[in-house]
Structures are given as C-alpha cells and as structure tokens.
Automatic annotation (TrEMBL):
InterPro entries: NAD(P)-bd_dom_sf, Sc_DH/Rdtase_CS, SDR_fam. It comes from the Bacteria. PROSITE patterns: ADH_SHORT (PS00061). Belongs to the short-chain dehydrogenases/reductases (SDR) family. GO terms for cellular component: membrane. One of its GO terms (molecular function) is oxidoreductase activity. The keyword Oxidoreductase applies. This is SDR family oxidoreductase. Keywords: Oxidoreductase.
Length: 263
C-alpha cells in the first residue's frame, strides 16, 4: 500500500467503480461511497479479487439527503482517514419535458449533483489546503457545455459543476496551493445512468463510450494535475462545438440525443 486514501462517491458501478479500480491498481486505500451496501460489497469483492491486498472501506451514504456530506466527513474523520484524493462522481439524471417530470426527483438531482458535491469539496478541500497536498476530481459531463432540452435540470447541474470547479481552480492558483482540482467531462457513457434517467433507448445511449476508457483518461488527468479531461473524440467535439455555436443551435443538437432510436 502507498498509505494514501482515495474517497470515491458513486463508486458501486460505472465511472465511479472504474476510477476506484485505477486507485486500487496504484495501491491506494479506497473508500467507496454509494447508497446501497450490497452493491458496495460486490464492488469491493471485485476490487479485492483483481488487486490482492487492496484495502477497501465501505461507507453507504445517500447524498440526496442534505446532511449526508457532513455525516460522511465526520465518519472518515472518526476513522482517522486522511483523504488525499476526493472523487465527486455521484450523480444522476431524469429525461422528459420539465413540465412532466417529477419535482422531488429533480430536487434530489440538484442535491446530489451540485449541493453535495460543493459540500464535500468544502470539507475535504479545507483539509487539503491546510496540508498543502491533495487532489480532487469533479465529474461533469459534455452536458456542462450546452443547454439540454428534456434533461434540463441534469445539464444545469453539470454546467454548475464546471463553473464552480473552474472558479475554485483559479482560487487555488491565487493561494499558490499545491492542491489540484480536475474536472472530467465525459460523453454519454455506458453506465446505469441511462436506466435511472429513463433514457435507455435514446440516441445517446446507443453510442455510449466505455466507462473504463473514460475513467482511465480522467484518472491520468487527475494525477497530472490537469485542469480538465475531455475523454474520447466525442467529448472534444462537444467542447469545441460549444465555443463555435450559439446556445440555440447547441440546444437543438443536444435535444436530438434524447430522441428514441428507431427500431
């Protein structure tokens, strides 16, 4: 073990699990956070099967509750875990016209994707800055770059994550801190996201990227201290399109991604 600890939210599957694999491969102690203990146990079993001797800590936590971030931080503190790397991956979405979707679901999306991310960042970043070491990976999306009809709240939270991350990156440079913060902006990725968002049959789901490939690129960027990771050609195209096209056109293009694939 390298005696360093990485805490990953949304770690039971998808990009979060693949990022946990990257840390486990490099002999970090990995703290896996997700809602369901049984899914965390399966994730831990897979990691320990692949990486003999890796230490895995399971912390079931529902980040849709406003008090969850504080409770998670208190628990890692109680256990004496010094978090050198924080990955804010937990997040989910909902698909449909805003007038038709469920309000509580969307408030939970805001809480998980934005509010809990900010809260966890505040708590762990203060400790990192005090030690003058540490790194944080914020998982955004290509939806950070454009308004997304029929996923309006989800895309807005990811735009928030991008703006928030870039502002704090600038602050860290002003403070001359050795702590780094990286934002990962993946394209549509083959994860449980589409099932939860009721978007399994959309165009975006039909050409989703590999979660492992996305995680590997994001992990490399984090370790290099890069400001941003745009994994795959698709993510890069989305980013550069956002620089060239007006929001009205971007919204139209994003809207096509939530159309059902013809059978």
């Amino acid at each position: 073990m390298n005696n360093q600890t990485a805490l990953i939210t949304g770690a039971s599957s998808g990009i979060g699990f693949e990022l946990a694999r990257c840390f486990a491969r490099d002999e970090y102690r990995v703290v896996l956070v997700a809602r369901h203990l049984d899914e965390l146990r399966e994730a831990a079993r897979l990691l320990q099967q692949e990486f003999w001797g890796v230490e895995v800590v399971l912390l079931p936590c529902d980040l849709s509750h406003p008090e969850a971030a504080e409770q998670l931080y208190a628990e890692t503190t109680r256990r004496g875990l010094v978090v050198e790397a924080l990955v804010n991956d937990a997040g989910f979405g909902e698909t449909g016209f805003f007038t038709d979707t469920d309000m509580q679901t969307e408030l939970n999306i805001i809480q998980v994707n934005a509010a809990s991310l900010v809260h966890l960042t505040k708590l762990y970043l203060r400790d990192m800055v005090a030690r003058n070491e540490g790194r944080i990976l914020q998982v955004g999306s290509v939806a950070s770059f454009a308004p997304s009809p029929c996923q309006a709240v989800y895309a807005a939270t990811k735009a928030f994550v991008l703006s928030f991350t870039e502002a704090v990156q600038h602050e860290l440079r002003q403070q001359k801190s050795a702590v780094t913060m990286t934002i990962l902006c993946p394209p549509p990725t083959d994860t449980n996201f589409f099932h939860v968002a009721h978007a399994e049959h959309t165009r975006a789901a039909s050409h989703a990227a590999s979660a492992r490939a996305v995680a590997e690129e994001g992990y490399d960027a984090l370790m290099e201290g890069a400001a941003r990771s745009l994994p795959t050609l698709g993510a890069k195209v989305n980013f550069f399109s956002s620089l060239l096209l007006p929001d009205s056109v971007l919204a139209t293009l994003m809207n096509t991604q939530v159309h059902a694939v013809a059978k």
